[in-house]
Write a structure and sequence with these properties.
Distance between the termini: 53 Å
Radius of gyration: 21 Å
Strand content: 25-35%
Structural class: mainly beta
Number of domains: 3
Helix content: under 10%
Number of helices: 5
CATH architecture of the largest domain: Beta Barrel
Strand order of the largest sheet: 1-29-30-31-32
CATH class of the largest domain: Mainly Beta
């Protein structure tokens, strides 16, 4: 009976999410827990704010100069990845990747994870890109993927409560190879365990790690960012896994995909997995770097020590069945014909998957779509599961937000789309003034989304298009807006803003602690 209760807890979670409770809650994962839906049930969020005058600004915290990570909120903490252009610790100078932890109540700086760059080439770890992945919080633990292809479990309290281990080498981990160790202090991260998937799985990471770990039961599901070499025309690690499963307690590798996706990866493995339901059974939904969405059976129990399981494939859905499937790298830089890839995350909602994809923004064709298919069947479900396809402009990196019969998504043609979730018909389209790489957040009857021009656009959610505000921020916005515990969080390249209806200019400090 106890095993049944544990095994069914994921389904209870998905059902509770579908009920959309209005009580304030944490946002410990990128997107809703399990489903990745960019919807929040938070209420009383502002329809406008002024970052210069401080109106509705609860606090803002300084970041680096480039921020691509989305903030997560849990246990009274806010965690986000950035770079080290403005060091908080003078002992760590130069290009470093940072995960910073702030106090949720006032934005005060608590601790940071500092990681030196990989030096293989710029295409392993892009200069000044900071920490591109988004963390996941569960209890007092933080799961994340660092810029060096290291999956880590951190103590949410950092070193403030001591070095808990079993990992004890933080002093050396924070500096480049061959440099003298820097003693960790109370404002440093406490690494509990670490798994290097480049070393252990033979992954050839491309550009950097860009992953958001999915926690399901005892296990952690992580995409590996396996991709092309520096020429962008060859896969150096064709046999390396695209999706791995770790024991969240120890960091031990327990399973990986056996699909040999590598040779078909057009650029890299960008997408993080979601968890859905198929006839009462859990299914891991993963978009590979080959433009295929895979349904895997989750790992149910720990295998014997030393055994690495092969994930069981339940079904697969080809996002772009008419695209080239062989010798894919000959289509590099072809803006008319190329494979599709998926930079967003698949969203599971009421038995369906909503997902965006298309030609690669840097190297592929100028075509993109939002597609919807039902989670049903086995084997190749491409033809039987597809429900509708909606054209987007040029390219897309945006994960959909699904709520109240509507889907909201953006593309690289500067368009924000509202689409009927049942039919795939356009409801309305809004043209922004800047490119959009971010995903929308739907919450409290509003749609929030940022642009690379540095504007946060706020629209009314619903079938009638209504622009509520366009707020000019200090720098471009790449992360997704997030809502938690009655507060809206917006990260620009340089600052993290906590935005609240109750905030006034007199109590909106800028927190630069730890310089």
């Amino acid at each position: 009976m106890g095993r049944c209760l544990v095994g069914c807890s994921w389904l209870v979670g998905i059902l509770l999410i579908a009920a959309c409770p209005a009580t304030p809650e944490d946002r410990p994962q990128w997107g809703q827990r399990y489903t990745r839906n960019m919807f929040s049930g938070e209420r009383n969020l502002p329809a406008n704010f002024d970052p210069v005058a401080g109106i509705n600004i609860k606090w803002k915290a300084r970041l680096g100069s480039e921020t691509y990570s989305t903030p997560v909120i849990g246990g009274g903490r806010v965690i986000i990845g950035t770079n080290n252009r403005q060091p908080r610790d003078a002992r760590h100078s130069g290009d470093r990747s940072i995960f910073a932890c702030f106090n949720e109540s006032d934005g005060s700086f608590l601790w940071q994870l500092v990681c030196p760059k990989l030096t293989n080439s710029i295409y392993w770890d892009w200069p000044n890109a900071g920490m591109c992945s988004t963390a996941t919080i569960e209890g007092r633990r933080v799961y994340l993927v660092g810029n060096r292809g290291e999956v880590m479990c951190l103590d949410l309290d950092g070193m403030a409560n001591g070095n808990d281990g079993p990992f004890k080498d933080e002093d050396s981990h924070s500096v480049p190879a061959g440099s003298p160790p820097i003693p960790a202090g109370t404002h440093d991260a406490d690494i509990l365990w670490l798994f290097d998937y480049i070393k252990e799985c033979g992954v050839r990471q491309h550009d950097q790690a860009h992953a958001s770990p999915l926690v399901h039961g005892r296990f952690l599901y992580v995409n590996t960012s396996n991709g092309v070499d520096d020429s962008h025309r060859k896969i150096m690690a064709p046999d390396a896994p695209s999706l791995i499963v770790l024991d969240k307690e120890t960091g031990r590798l327990v399973a990986q995909d056996a699909e040999r996706i590598g040779p078909r990866i057009f650029h890299s493995t960008w997408s993080s997995p979601a968890l859905g339901d198929m006839n009462g059974r859990p299914v891991i939904i993963f978009a590979g770097g080959d433009g295929i969405i895979y349904g895997f059976e989750p790992v149910s129990e720990l295998p014997p020590q030393g055994t690495v399981l092969k994930l069981k494939k339940l079904w697969w859905f080809d996002f772009d069945p008419d695209a080239p499937k062989e010798n894919v790298h000959q289509y590099n830089s072809n803006r008319k014909i190329s494979p599709s890839n998926i930079k967003s995350m698949p969203v599971f909602h009421q038995g369906r998957v909503y997902v965006t994809g298309g030609g690669d923004v840097w190297w592929g064709k100028n075509e993109a779509w939002l597609k919807c298919f039902k989670v049903a069947g086995s084997g190749n479900i491409t033809d039987t599961a597809i429900l509708w396809s909606y054209p987007l402009e040029r390219h897309t990196m945006s994960t959909p937000a699904v709520h109240d019969g509507l889907v909201y998504v953006a593309d690289c043609g500067r368009k924000i789309h509202c689409v009927d979730a049942q039919t795939g018909n356009a409801v309305w389209v809004h043209e922004a003034q800047g490119d959009i790489w971010a995903s929308p957040l739907v919450a409290d009857g509003k749609v929030y989304i940022g642009t690379r021009r540095g504007e946060l656009i706020i629209l009314a959610a619903g079938r009638e298009k209504k622009v509520l505000a366009t707020v000019e921020m200090d720098s471009p916005i790449h992360p997704s807006p997030v809502a938690a515990n009655g507060v809206l969080y917006v990260a620009t390249m340089r600052y993290l803003y906590a935005i609240s209806q109750s905030a006034t200019p007199s109590n909106a400090p800028t927190n630069n602690q730890g310089q």
